[in-house]
C-alpha cells in the first residue's frame, strides 16, 4: 500500500488535466446553444426559429453524445485510451468550426438551421467520446505515483467536472463580450463566433496530449488481447452499475433542463427585459454559481468519500429546492435573494452528483471494461438530459405555464423529490470507494476471474507482461466512505 504522504508531482497532475480538461468542450458546447437560440430568434424571428428547431438545437447534441459515449467506450477499452482521446478532440475541433460555418442553399434560413443541427449532432459524438476516453484516463492517472494519496479524488474532480462547469461559465460570458464588441446590428457575428471559439480549447488539448502515453493501469490490465467475459462482469458489478446509471439519469434529467429553465428565471428577475446585455449578464451570474459547488466539493470528496459526498449534495439540494418552492413569492420579491438561493441550489448539485458520478463510474469497475462501464453509465445520464430537455417545458405548462406561480415552483418540487430518490438509490446500491481503490479492484477482479476458470495470462498489453498476483487473502483497505459512515 502506498504511503499516505507521497509527494505531488506537477508533471503527474498535468497528465490528469491533459486527460480531463477537454470536458471543458462539453460544458461549452452544451451551454452555448442556449445563448445561440436566443440570438437566432432575435435575428430571424420566432416564426423562422420555430419551437421544433429550438428544441432540436438544444437536444440534438445529446443524441450525438450518447453515440460517442457508447462507441468510444468500446474503443477506449479495446483499442487505446490515447487514440480515443486524440480522435475525440479532433472531432470536436472540426465540427465546432463547421457549426460556426453553417449555411443553407441559396442562403435559406431553414437550410442553415438544418446544417447547424447536423453539425451539432457530430459535435456531440466528439464530446461524448471524451467521457469514456478522457475521464477514464484521468481517473487512472489520479492513482499514479506522484499524486498525493489524500488528493486523488480532488484532482480528478478538478480535471473533469470542474472543467465542464468552467465551460458553462465561459459559454455564458463569451456571447456577452461579443455582444459588447459587435452590438445589436451584428448578431450573426456574435452567434457564429460563439460557436466557432469551441475550436480553440480542442486544438490546445490535442497538442497537449500528443506526447502522452497510455496509463500504466491500462497497459497492465487491458483485455485488448483476449475476449471480455461480459457475463462474469455483469454478475459481479450489476447492482453498483445500476445504481450509478439511475442516479446519473436523474441528475442529467434535472441539471440540463434547469440550465434551459434558467432563461425563465432570468426573465422573472429582469421583468422580461429584451436587452441582450441584461439577459446574458444575468446568465453569467447564474452559471458562476456552479463554480463554488464543484471546487468546494473537490476539497470535500477526499474526506467524506464520493458516495457520501454525493448523498450530502443531493439532500442539501433537495432542501434548498423545497425552500424555494415554499417561499417562492417571498424570494421573488427580493430578486437578489432569489438569484443567490437559486445559485446555491445549483451549487449543491455540483458538489454532490456533479463531481461524484463520474468518479464513481470511473473507479467502481475494473480497468478491463472501465471505458464501457463509464460510457454506458454516462450515456444513460445523457438519455435523461435528452428526455428532460424535451419534456421540461411540458411539465412547466402542465403546472400552469412560466407566467404562473405553480409553473415556476413545480419544477423545483419535482427536482427536489428526484434528488431525494437519487440519494436513496446511491445509499443502497452504490458501494464506497477508497483511495488507491482501482488497484485493489483490479487485483480482486483478476482473482474473481481465475476463480471462475478464466485465463488472465493474456490480460495487459503485450510488452507489459502479466503481473504476479498473490492468490491468498487479499487485504481490503479501509474505505474512506466507510469511515465517514461510522
Helix and strand succession? HHHHHHHHHHHHHHHHHHHH
* Intertermini distance: 23 Å
From the alpha carbons, calculate the radius of gyration and give it in angstroms.
Answer: 23 Å
Number of helices: 20
The CATH homologous superfamily is called: MFS general substrate transporter like domains
CATH class: Mainly Alpha
Signal peptide: 1-29
Keywords: Membrane, Signal, Transmembrane, Transmembrane helix, Transport
Membrane topology: Multi-pass membrane protein
Protein name: MFS Git1p glycerophosphoinositol and glycerophosphocholine permease
Overview features:
MFS; MFS_trans_sf; carboxylic acid transmembrane transporter activity; Growth Hormone, Chain: A; membrane; 486 residues; globular; mainly alpha; 0% strand; transmembrane
Could you characterize what this model shows?
With 486 residues, the protein is mainly α. It has a single domain (12-210, 224-452), classed as Growth Hormone, Chain: A (Up-down Bundle), CATH 1.20.1250.20. Helix content is 76%, strand content 0%. The chain has 20 helices and no strands. It has helices spanning 10-20, 24-44, 51-78, 81-100, 109-141, 152-159, 161-182, 187-196, 199-209, 216-221, 230-270, 276-288, 290-304, 306-326, 328-332, 335-364, 370-398, 405-429, 437-451, 480-485. The longest helix has 41 residues, at 230-270. The two termini are 23 Å apart. Mean pLDDT is 87; it is low at 1-6 and 468-486. The chain crosses the membrane at residues 53-76, 83-101, 155-183, 189-210, 237-259, 279-301, 334-352, 373-392, 412-430. Residues 472-486 have a biased composition (Basic and acidic residues). It is a multi-pass membrane protein. GO terms for molecular function: carboxylic acid transmembrane transporter activity. It comes from Fomitopsis schrenkii (Brown rot fungus).
Amino acid at each position: 500500500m502506498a504511503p499516505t504522504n507521497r509527494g505531488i508531482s506537477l508533471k503527474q497532475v498535468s497528465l490528469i488535466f491533459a486527460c480531463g480538461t477537454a470536458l471543458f468542450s462539453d460544458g461549452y458546447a452544451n451551454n452555448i446553444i442556449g445563448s445561440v437560440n436566443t440570438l437566432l430568434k432575435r435575428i430571424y424571428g420566432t416564426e423562422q426559429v420555430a419551437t421544433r428547431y429550438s428544441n432540436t438545437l438544444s437536444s440534438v447534441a445529446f443524441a450525438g453524445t450518447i453515440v460517442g459515449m457508447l462507441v468510444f467506450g468500446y474503443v477506449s477499452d479495446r483499442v487505446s485510451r490515447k487514440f480515443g482521446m486524440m480522435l475525440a478532440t479532433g472531432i470536436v475541433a472540426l465540427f465546432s468550426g463547421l457549426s460556426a460555418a453553417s449555411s443553407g442553399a441559396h442562403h435559406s434560413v431553414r437550410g442553415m438551421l438544418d446544417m447547424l443541427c447536423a453539425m451539432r449532432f457530430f459535435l456531440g459524438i466528439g464530446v461524448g467520446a471524451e467521457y469514456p476516453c478522457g475521464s477514464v484516463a484521468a481517473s487512472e492517472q489520479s492513482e499514479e505515483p506522484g499524486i498525493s494519496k489524500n488528493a486523488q479524488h480532488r484532482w480528478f474532480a478538478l480535471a473533469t467536472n470542474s472543467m465542464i462547469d468552467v465551460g458553462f461559465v465561459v459559454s455564458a460570458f463569451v456571447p456577452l463580450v461579443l455582444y459588447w464588441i459587435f452590438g445589436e446590428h451584428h448578431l450573426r457575428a456574435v452567434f457564429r463566433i460563439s460557436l466557432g471559439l469551441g475550436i480553440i480549447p480542442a486544438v490546445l488539448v490535442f497538442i497537449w496530449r500528443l506526447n502522452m502515453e497510455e496509463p500504466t493501469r491500462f497497459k497492465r490490465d487491458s483485455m485488448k488481447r483476449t475476449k471480455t467475459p461480459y457475463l462474469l462482469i455483469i454478475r459481479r458489478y450489476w447492482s453498483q452499475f445500476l445504481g450509478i446509471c439511475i442516479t446519473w439519469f436523474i441528475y442529467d434529467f434535472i441539471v440540463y433542463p434547469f440550465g434551459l429553465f434558467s432563461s425563465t428565471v432570468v426573465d422573472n428577475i429582469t421583468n422580461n427585459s429584451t436587452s441582450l446585455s441584461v439577459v446574458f449578464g444575468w446568465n453569467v451570474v447564474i452559471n458562476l454559481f456552479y463554480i463554488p459547488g464543484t471546487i468546494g466539493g473537490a476539497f470535500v470528496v477526499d474526506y467524506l468519500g464520493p458516495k457520501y459526498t454525493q448523498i450530502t449534495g443531493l439532500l442539501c439540494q433537495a432542501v434548498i429546492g423545497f425552500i424555494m418552492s415554499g417561499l417562492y413569492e417571498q424570494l421573488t420579491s427580493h430578486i437578489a435573494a432569489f438569484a443567490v438561493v437559486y445559485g446555491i441550489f445549483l451549487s449543491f448539485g455540483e458538489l454532490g452528483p456533479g463531481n461524484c458520478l463520474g468518479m464513481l463510474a470511473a473507479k467502481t469497475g475494473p480497468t478491463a471494461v472501465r471505458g464501457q462501464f463509464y460510457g454506458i453509465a454516462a450515456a444513460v445520464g445523457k438519455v435523461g438530459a435528452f428526455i428532460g430537455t424535451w419534456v421540461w417545458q411540458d411539465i412547466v405548462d402542465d403546472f400552469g405555464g412560466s407566467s404562473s406561480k405553480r409553473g415556476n415552483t413545480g419544477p423545483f418540487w419535482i427536482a427536489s423529490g428526484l434528488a431525494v430518490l437519487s440519494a436513496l438509490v446511491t445509499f443502497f446500491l452504490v458501494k464506497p470507494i477508497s483511495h488507491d481503490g482501482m488497484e485493489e479492484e483490479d487485483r480482486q477482479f483478476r482473482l474473481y476471474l481465475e476463480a471462475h476458470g478464466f485465463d488472465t495470462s493474456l490480460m495487459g498489453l503485450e510488452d507489459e507482461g502479466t503481473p504476479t498476483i498473490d492468490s491468498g487473502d487479499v487485504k481490503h483497505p479501509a474505505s474512506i466512505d466507510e469511515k465517514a459512515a461510522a
